Amino acid sequence: MPSYRIHRLKEHLRPQFQSIPHASGVTAVKSRDYREGGMVEATGAYAAWSSLRGSPAALAVGDLLEAPDGALHICKYVGFEEARWVLPEPSSV
C-alpha cells in the first residue's frame, strides 16, 4: 500500500486559506507555508482522508498529501485537487 507524506498548513495561515474563494485548477503552494506532518498508508488521497477522519491527526482544509511519485493533492472544501510547489526564482547576481 502506498505511503503518503502529510504536509500541514501552518496554523497562522489557515484562516487566510479558508477565506479565499474556491478556484479550479492547480493550486500553487510554497514549502515555507507547511510543516512536516508524518505519513499515512492508503490506496489514495480520499482513503487517507477517511482513515484519519475523526482522529487527532485528521486532515484539514489546506493540508497537502504527497504521493510516492511526488504528486501533490491539496485538501479543499470540495475535495482534493492537484497542487504544485512554487519554486523560487533563481537569483541573477
What does it look like?
This protein is an alpha+beta fold. It has one domain. Helix content is 15%, strand content 35%. It is built from 2 helices and 6 strands; from the N terminus they run E-H-E-E-H-E-E-E. The protein has helices at 14-19, 45-52; strands spanning 3-9, 27-29, 34-41, 64-66, 72-76, 79-85. A 6-stranded mixed sheet has the order 2-6-5-4-1-3. The radius of gyration is 14 Å and the shape is globular. The relative contact order is 0.28.
Give the SSE layout.
Blueprint: E1 3-9, H1 14-19, E2 27-29, E3 34-41, H2 45-52, E4 64-66, E5 72-76, E6 79-85
Parallel strand pairs: 2-6
Antiparallel strand pairs: 1-3, 1-4, 4-5, 5-6
Summarize the structure.
This protein is an alpha+beta fold.
Major sheet attributes: 6 strands, mixed
Strand order of the largest sheet: 2-6-5-4-1-3
Class per helix and strand makeup:
alpha+beta
The oligomeric status of these chains comes to single chain
**What is the helix fraction of residues, given as a range?**
10-25%
Which stretches are poorly predicted, pLDDT < 50 over at least 5 residues? none
| Integer count of domains | 1
Report the end-to-end length measured between terminal Cα atoms.
Answer: 46 Å
Q: What is the number of E strands?
A: 6
Look at the structure and give the mean pLDDT. 90
What best-fitting shape do the alpha-carbon axes yield?
Answer: globular
Please give the radius of gyration in angstroms: 14 Å
Give the helices and strands as they follow along the chain.
EHEEHEEE
